[in-house]
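Contributing new records

If you add data, match the layout below exactly. Sequence lines come first and carry their own label; structure lines follow with theirs. Keep one chain per record. Anything else will be rejected by the validation script.
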Amino acid sequence: MLGLGGGSISAYLGRFMPDAVITTVEIDPGVITAAKTYFGVRETERMRYRASDGRVFLNRNSDLYDLILLDAYRGGYVPFHLLTREFYALVRQRLAPGGAAAFNVHDGSKLYASTVKTLGEVFPALDLFPTGMGEVIAVAAAAPLARETLERRAAALQARHGFRFPLPQILPRRMETPQAEGANGDIITDDFAPADVYDVIGRDSRRRK
């Protein structure tokens, strides 16, 4: 997990998946301290918290992960070095066989379209799940899965773990043509990442409608 905040996501996964080993990486040590002090976050052998930049952490550690989650915001948007083609390629390298990565992305701007387009260039499989609250969860993997397979796995995982937010109820939100969301975007690279500008383009026109 890249980005801690109050620790709600890692705590949620740790509660419902008691066998999972979860490493949460947060760039600000003060955020980790605050989460432990005020939000009940507790470090154990399987719930680990590391103070580091997410990209630096993945660069320095060759471990492979079944799931990598990115929910790191600065101000209102993700820091640009966590949005580029090179970073997404690093994330893909750190996935175990059959693994997936999930990204929390604000929609309604050129940055959103560019993020989708860049993810689609790195990952052969990309699914988008709108939350209806101005955010989209992008799930990327090395190989696509048929809808029937996803439905079967969602039902099996829900029966096993009893998630508070049932997976079979989330699956119908999946967009049928996620590539279309990136049609008006540009590939974001380490050398070309106007994230702050792209985050504004499109938002004003959407508010006026």
